[in-house]
Amino acid sequence: MIKLIIDSTCDLDSNLISKFKIDVVPLQVIVNGHSYKDKFEMSVETLYDHIRNSDDVKTSLPAYDDIAPIFEKYAKENQPFIFISFAKALSGTNNFANILVKELQEKYSTQMAVVDSKNGGLATAMMVEDILDFMQTHDNFDEIVNFSNELAAQMHHVIMLDDLTQLRKGGRISAIKSVISSVLSIKPVLKLDQGYIKHHKNGIGKKRALIELVNYVEANSKDKNTVIGVNYSANEELLNDVLNLLAQRGFNHIRKGRIASVMTAHIGLDAVSLCFLGK
User: Fold this and answer.
1) I need a labelling partner for 3 at 20 to 30 A (CA). Which of 101, 111, 213, 275 fits?
2) Is 265 within 8 Å of 166 (Cβ atoms)?
3) Which of 80, 115, 218 shows the shortest CA–CA distance to 158?
4) Is Transmembrane among the key words of this record (predicted)?
């Protein structure tokens, strides 16, 4: 049996983690200079409180001792493993894991691979669920890796932000643009493109921006039976508004989740996103 390993940005259900004995590698959340293991030492709710208090919140890749011993243990045991990482474009986690795997491949013949999810949160969780299902009928290592990479390429993810404060703090938008957007009530709609956060459209006002989110789903989903992952941070009003819009368009196969804590540190509390396997 091939072992799956995920990082803490993947919001996989704890029951599945226990059932399939999946190892979870924590990224680091750094608050006011103090480092915490994501989800292990800091909950999403605690992170929200720090952001509300305008604390200095940053994130970092996993500590060496939280990832290397797991990889080496399975390499020594000749236990094949696949690590599904947070988007390579957003974190050094994927590169770090690849370096560790290359070092281990010089010592062991164990099959090892690192897959860039190009995503995080519920989007990655939905991918991992499909991978687990695929593994029930397939045991070829390369086939599973290829299937995982195909899923990553097919996953769409669009995000609407109602507040640009965290993006500005992270240097992803200038203070001037942040102020102008606030004054004019311009709400950016972003998308993850191969893991990179890119601008998709602007909406004048929250309602128009949410409509643009749903327009994107309608244009890029396979059909109305597509499972749509709806992610939100701390703003339940945004969640309910986008759920109503999806229902009006005939999308009724919905998965709800919270935006991963590491992503929240980048985009803030007033955000909602939609993810799905597209055309």
Assistant:
1) 275
2) yes
3) 218
4) no
- Rounded to whole angstroms, how far apart are CA atoms 161 and 266? 11
* The token pair that represents 226 in the structure block: 């597509």
Which residue, 233, 260, 246, 263, is CA-closest to 162?
233
Instruction: Give Cβ neighbours of residue 234 (< 8 Å, ≥ 6 apart).
Output: 48, 269, 270
Tell me, what DSSP letter sits at residue 223?
S
The phi-psi region of residue 98 (left if phi > 0; otherwise alpha if psi is between -120 and 50; otherwise beta) is alpha
End-to-end CA distance of the chain: 31
How far is the C-alpha of 263 from the C-alpha of 243, rounded, in Å? 21
Q: Could you tell me the domains of the chain?
A: 3-154 (3.40.50.10170), 155-277 (3.30.1180.10)
Tell how many helices (H) and how many strands (E) occur in the chain.
11, 13
Element (H, E) at 182: helix 175-184
pLDDT in tens, 133-164: 999 999 999 999 999 999 999 999 999 887 65
* pTM attached to this predicted model: 0.91
Residue 264 is encoded by which pair of tokens?
């929240």
User: In whole angstroms, how far apart are CA 93 and each of 52, 82, 89, 118, 153?
Assistant: 27, 14, 10, 12, 18
Q: What percent of the residues of the chain are helix, what percent strand, and what percent coil, each to the nearest 5?
A: 45, 25, 30
pLDDT in tens, 62-84: 999 999 999 999 999 999 999 99
Q: Please answer whether residues 94 and 85 qualify as being in contact, where contact means their C-beta atoms are separated by less than 8 angstroms.
A: yes
Q: Is 115 exposed, middle or buried (0-12, 13-18, 19+ CB in 10 A)?
A: buried
